[in-house]
Amino acid sequence: MSHFALQSNNVIIDGEMIAACVEIKDELIKAIHQYGQAVSCEVQDFGDQVIMPGLVDSHVHINEPGRTEWEGFNTATQAAAAGGITALVDMPLNCIPVTTTKAAFQEKLDSVDDKLWVDCGFWGGVIPQNIGDLDELLHAGVLGVKSFLIDSGIEEFPPVEAKDMRAAMPILAKHDVPYLIHAELDCGSFNDVKITKEYNTFLESRPKKWENDAISLMVDMARESKENGDNCKVHIVHLSSDEALDTIAQAKSEGLRFTAETCPHYLTIASETIPDGKTLFKCCPPIRENSNREHLWQAVTDGRLDFIVSDHSPCTPELKHIDTGDIEKAWGGISALQFGISLIWTEAKKRGFSLVDIVRLMSTETAKFAGLDSVKGEIKIGNHADFLVFDPNAEFTITNEMIKHRHNITPYAGRKVIGRVEHTFVRGHHVYQQDEFINAPKGRPLLKGKL
After folding, report:
1. 355/343 Cα distance (integer angstroms)
2. Any idea where the Amidohydrolase-related domain is (predicted)?
3. Which one of 64, 130, 383, 424 is most buried, counting C-beta atoms within 10 A?
4. How far apart are CA 185 and CA 188, in angstroms?
């Protein structure tokens, strides 16, 4: 159906929840009408359920090609659709080859055919060896690039140093794309911590100082870039340490193009509640104490943190060492792509947030950050007809059986949440309805300059 309309008493448009009818034609939003107005096409009425812009998740590890036993485009984008995500941006690792050259990027693009249930953009990577290839990689259509300041866990994606970033940042500024940074610096002296099955020993091995020092370095790099006339966009991924929030606020106050994100696991789990030997909770940087969690929520409230993304980072159950409980050997990463909005809404609602706020934090701002805001992130005329239909009062318990990503493991199994995605539309195509996928994959790649 290429011409139809959706209506509800609760539609989030331009920062407000209103009764409205949204007319869709040829994958785009054609018009916005008053609720109940006669239109020359079929109308689906969702009553009091909330029609929201599709979510945009700018931090997802899909691992294809090369490590598809960990995840893949088909399963990851199904999980996204089930979570109301209509566009995501794939990370440049842990695929093989890593997305650090134009040729590697083309391999990734060749692997997505007929597998995308939602639209998908791509980040490239910066490593010491590929600075000379950056311009070509950016011209090929990646939306920005990412680096690690610490061991990434895979040999083919080594960390950068200040000299590498100095060489990369003018190129990124020329293309006006963000530089995403995994901000941990191994400051030493913590390597003596013996990691046992106790979660707290892992937490002690990756202290806040690692993040704090890395973020201070990145503020210095951003200042230097601005002084040089480049003013490169710098972005801190998956912030965990509350002690770095003042540094981020200072960078913003100086007019640096400096942003930061956090993730559902840092906002919904406290380290005190993690049972020993439960390797599914391992991620880097680690989940910290409840007081830290509350400070992150304050930063989401006051804008020091810009938005919320999943950092879906799956692997095989074997790599998680679930049976042995060996936290030290377990791969670090949280799998929860499809549950983000329910997890966040459950916690945010208690704190006085509205669904309008959730749209801003998980759709509008993420679309803007990734350079997709000309077509994604808001219900407005001319945008892609991307929607999720949400029941904000439905309660359910997350189970392994309902998981759509490749391996049905998640640290959230058994958790009760409020708010359920009932339907997902990607560019007007109804792709998900009440736990069922509809038709065939309709997603497409989102390339810079070719949206």
Report:
1. 13
2. 50-429
3. 424
4. 9
